[in-house]
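Me: I keep going back and forth on a fold encoding question. No explanation is needed for now; the record alone will do.

Assistant:
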Amino acid sequence: MTTVLETDEHKALRAAVAALGTRYGRDYLTKVIAAGAHPDELWSEAAKLGYLGVNLPEAYGGGGGGIAELSIVLEELGAAGCPLLMMVVSPAICGTVIARFGTDAQKQDWLPALADGTRTMAFGITEPDAGSNSHRITTTARRDGTDWILTGRKVFISGVDIADATLIVGRAEDARTGKLKPCLFIVPRDAPGFERRQIDMELHGAEKQFELTLDDVRLPAEALVGDEDAGLLQLFAGLNPERIMTAAFAIGMGRYALSRAITYARERTVWRDPIGAHQAIAHPLAQAHIDLELARLMMQKAAFLYDSGDDAGAGEAANMAKYAAAEACVKAVDQSVHTLGGNGLTGEFGLASLITASRVARIAPVSREMILNYVSHQTLGLPKSY
């Protein structure tokens, strides 16, 4: 297989994004969150530099790259302490789905705006009673003449308050079999019957979480993305990038926490030598670094396979990358906080909030247990228990 190690262009992109992230940093994001605002300045500058649309086609104002490039952007911003979570949703999921399956009109309408950051799109799949089981989605889409009528509920949908539209996963009846099949629809934020309620979260982030209600939301025929009979393929075309980008998010966060702990361990002196000279401090940090590097390798493999058009191979690798990165992130954050002792719980060092944030990658967009289920029966050929 062709190597997945980074090209010189990738290394240059990584360095350039790291420089941008360093200019903003964790303090910037902390102030934004405390003010209940959004990281608009960073989002706009990243867009102007071409980073937000790096994976989108050049014909529509993008960079012509792939998820490999976009994951580098998110990872480096995360490593600088200022990740942009909406990158997972807007360019990675929605932008990819529209670029691959959207109509010419949808591409013209959305891709340039997603690339230059002037518009964002949220993604709605999770439901209160479905959890990780996408086969239990109950949001239904029925035809009414040439229009579609959407009815249902979604939960834990990020950034709906700032998004211009939400890509909603519903299910429509297959005329041939009578069974429900997944379909994707672009729902404008001001569509009648489309309501949102913010969820009170212990997790503090710039991107808020919402419950959505679709009460007979009427959409024109052109709101349907792609072919209504290819919904499952289109859905996973967005979910695989989501998993890869979640891995990038986790790796960046783990690297940020680890860098703070390493600096502290080099400088903090309790006895005669800096605490980093003691193996009880040094070895767990070294192990955390190794785990993050290994997770990145799997993320790079997943991105390479996806960008090469190997959807099946990318599905397995993306799930593994997301699992490995989440575990590495949680352990890196935990060890970093522990290295700082009491200081690790202070606002001054800003690591304690990552204890909660790091768990997001274990839970979303799919739990680690469901990934183990996937690997068990898809890769190992073991029977299903569900």
Notes: The chain has a mean pLDDT of 94.
